[in-house]
Automatic annotation (TrEMBL):
Domain Pyrroloquinoline quinone-dependent pyranose dehydrogenase beta-propeller, residue spans: 263-658
Species of origin: Clohesyomyces aquaticus
Protein name per Swiss-Prot or TrEMBL: Uncharacterized protein
Domain Cellobiose dehydrogenase-like cytochrome: start-end pairs: 27-202
PANTHER family linked: CELLOBIOSE DEHYDROGENASE CYTOCHROME DOMAIN-CONTAINING PROTEIN, DEHYDROGENASE, PUTATIVE (AFU_ORTHOLOGUE AFUA_8G05805)-RELATED
InterPro entries tied to this protein: 6-blade_b-propeller_TolB-like (IPR011042), Beta-prop_PDH (IPR054539), Cellobiose_DH-like_cyt (IPR015920), Quinoprot_gluc/sorb_DH_b-prop (IPR011041)
Length: 659
């Protein structure tokens, strides 16, 4: 059953902080309509809200957005955050303005949102200096949250809203589903909704309906990728990773690649499917069917033929809170998936492609923050053990240094002892390590030992004796962690939020470092670089800073670990946006480890990459990244490697292997 929660001055979301009311009310004595309007002087934008006098759920709202023409698009978040609330966007289109209904289920391009319906009203115009959009919205004042509850704005109180604008033109100004680039700036304010209530609301809307928008005076243009074959065979760098089965020359219905790519010598890549919605993790079932998490949509089911192409597709689970994590029990009969706050299980039938009744097995994960995905993995040798990775809530999540917060941590849960109400993530399970800022890609080696790849921090400065040096472009390094045996607690600390690894030693002017050494941002007599050596478990390898590794999978003989680099936003020039391979070896002690030492900056090689990474855009949602963005990985039974690219406006699925 879905619960109802009121958002406003009476009941507030735990992650929201309410401040002084910043909106001002004004009423028209003739129409009896009141607007409560907030103006941001720095951005030059204003956001007006008008409500009916009766504000019982469901109720309508009128939204008025005015912005300078230099702000290519302007947006309002009805819940005060980018994700999990309706978003109203507006942009100029000739002499009028376009309104776009959106909803973001993760840190990606917000999707078109059908549950909010807009009707344009008079006053919707654009000129050489400003544009204004006025519309009635049905569906903006209440919405389904990520825990399936219904959130309702308190129309007699206050609410925290957020604004944002972009500086790059949208892809197609005439389309209300156009793709657009990431925001250039954003902010929040507290809005007085009670002051927006008007007795003349319904009459005002009825008399100001805009039957048809004025014709646009400028032509609408759309830039599309040039036609290309579905198979890319450009070769450059060598790579030594065998995949033993053939790759199809093309797949019927897959379409042309959205972006071109370059392959290591001897490799082949074929597009298998396009038109996906932010595709993330991949899971094959016992019958060889492929399951794909589409963030904000659910899990899709794809029947494969013998050559690696898809013969049919359907939605297996429609649940928009799912955003990344997926796993399957070794017997293939139980499916697991995660939202930002919960982990679910379903009885699963691979042949029928169907699931049974959903059960919530883990709750209590952090609601909000910068890292929203929760990666899942089932221990291959212990099918009762489910591993769940949880990132930090911000770049520097100071409290996460204590594992009791349940953030920047990896935990293990024994499903054979599942409580009737499920586990609470913070208090339940045991540690597989903590102090991992965001280990999105976790996997097991041939000894059933756990590994993970960590996204490290952004915007770093090194401060010594009061002098700060900007080191963020090439430090800290991303990490490859070894967590080991998940059948017993691992209470090791992996450094975050205090200790980080060096990638580019010359950036440090106060002392001599090597690649992989520990450092702190502000050493002092109590805690310094050497303290990290004493207290932290070192990574097995470091990666280029800001590469953003988000998945990792071993090949069949565990001689290579494949890692997707999702791509940077905090580096100039950009980096990442590629698939790499880390050569592994099994030592005389039987333990797997990377061939390269921790001190190496050449411990991996490129397999599939974008031809000009400097043209890639990694700063959040983007339609014009100019690049594919590797995300999820999985091997099928024929040892072909499948990879998703979650470019939000047109997600793709690829199969790779030796040609």
């Amino acid at each position: 059953m879905r619960s109802v929660q009121v958002i406003g001055s009476a009941v507030a979301l735990a992650s929201h902080v309410y401040g002084q009311v910043a909106s001002k009310a004004s009423c028209d004595t003739t129409t009896k309509v009141c607007f409560s309007t907030y103006t941001d002087t720095e951005s030059g934008m204003s956001f007006g809200i008008s409500l009916p006098n009766t504000v019982a759920d469901p109720y309508d709202a009128v939204i008025k957005i005015t912005a300078p023409i230099k702000n290519a698009w302007a947006g309002l978040a009805w819940g005060g955050t980018m994700v999990w609330n309706p978003l109203t966007l507006a942009w100029a289109n000739g002499k009028t303005s376009t309104v776009s209904s959106r909803f973001a289920f993760g840190i990606s391009l917000p999707q078109a949102y059908a549950d909010a319906e807009y009707t344009l009203l008079k006053g919707t115009v654009a000129n050489s200096t400003h544009y204004t959009m006025v519309a009635r919205c049905r569906g903006c004042t209440a919405w389904q949250a990520n825990d399936d509850s219904r959130y309702v704005l308190n129309g007699t109180g206050t609410a925290e809203f957020a604004w944002a604008y972009g500086s790059s033109a949208v892809e197609n100004p005439a389309s209300n589903t156009s793709a657009f680039n990431v925001h250039a700036a954003f902010g929040k304010w507290t809005h007085d909704l009670n002051a927006a209530r008007s007795s003349g609301f319904d009459a005002y809307v009825a008399s100001n309906l805009l039957a048809a928008p004025p014709a646009a005076t400028s032509a609408v243009s759309s830039t599309k990728p040039s036609a290309a074959p579905t198979t890319i065979v450009t070769s450059a760098k060598p790579s030594n990773s065998p995949i033993r089965k053939g790759i199809p020359a093309s797949c019927s219905g897959a379409g042309s690649p959205k972006f071109q790519g370059v392959l290591a010598s001897g490799w082949k890549a074929t597009k298998v499917l396009g038109g996906l919605t932010s595709p993330r993790s991949i899971q094959f079932d016992s019958a060889g069917n492929m399951l794909v998490v589409q963030s904000g949509k659910g899990i899709s089911y794809h029947v494969m033929n013998g050559d690696g192409c898809i013969t049919s597709t359907k939605m297996l689970v429609s649940l928009n809170s799912l955003n990344h994590g997926i796993a399957m029990s070794p017997d293939g009969k139980t499916l697991y998936a995660s939202s930002m706050t919960q982990v679910y299980s379903w009885p699963y039938d691979a042949t029928a492609g169907s699931v049974g009744t959903r059960t919530t097995i883990i709750t209590g994960m952090y609601n909000g923050g910068a890292h929203l995905t929760r990666t899942l993995a089932v221990a291959p040798h212990k099918p009762n053990l489910l591993v769940v990775s949880h990132g930090s809530n911000d770049n520097f999540d100071t409290a996460a240094g204590d594992p009791k917060t349940g953030r920047a941590i990896i935990k293990v849960f024994d499903l054979s002892a599942l409580p009737s109400a499920g586990y609470n993530y913070v208090s339940g399970g045991w540690l597989a390590g903590y102090g991992q800022r965001n280990d999105v890609g976790i996997t097991f080696d041939g000894n059933n030992m756990l590994w993970g790849v960590e996204n490290s921090g952004d915007n770093f400065k090194r401060t010594v004796n009061g002098k700060s040096t900007d080191i963020h472009n090439n430090n800290p390094g991303e990490k490859l962690h070894y967590m080991g045996d998940v059948t017993k607690p691992n209470n090791d600390w992996y450094g975050y939020p205090t200790c980080f690894t060096v990638w580019n030693p010359p950036d440090f002017t106060d002392k001599k470092f090597a690649v992989g050494d520990w450092f702190v941002v502000s050493p002092n007599t109590t805690f310094n670089d050497d303290t990290c050596k004493q207290k932290c478990t070192a990574p097995a390898l470091t990666f280029m800073p800001h590469s953003a590794p988000i998945d990792s999978k071993f090949d069949a003989d565990y001689s290579n670990l494949y890692v997707t680099f999702h791509g940077s936003w905090n580096r100039s020039p950009t980096t990442g946006f590629k698939l790499v391979v880390v050569p592994f070896t099994k030592g005389s002690d039987g333990v797997y480890k990377p061939v390269a030492p921790l001190s190496s900056d050449k411990g991996y090689t490129d397999v599939f990459w974008n031809p000009d990474v400097t043209k890639c855009t990694g700063n959040g949602p983007s339609f014009s990244s100019g690049c594919f963005r590797p995300a999820g990985l999985a091997f099928d039974k024929s040892e072909r490697l499948f990879m998703t690219s979650d470019t939000s406006s047109d997600g793709e699925l690829w199969v790779l292997g030796k040609s």
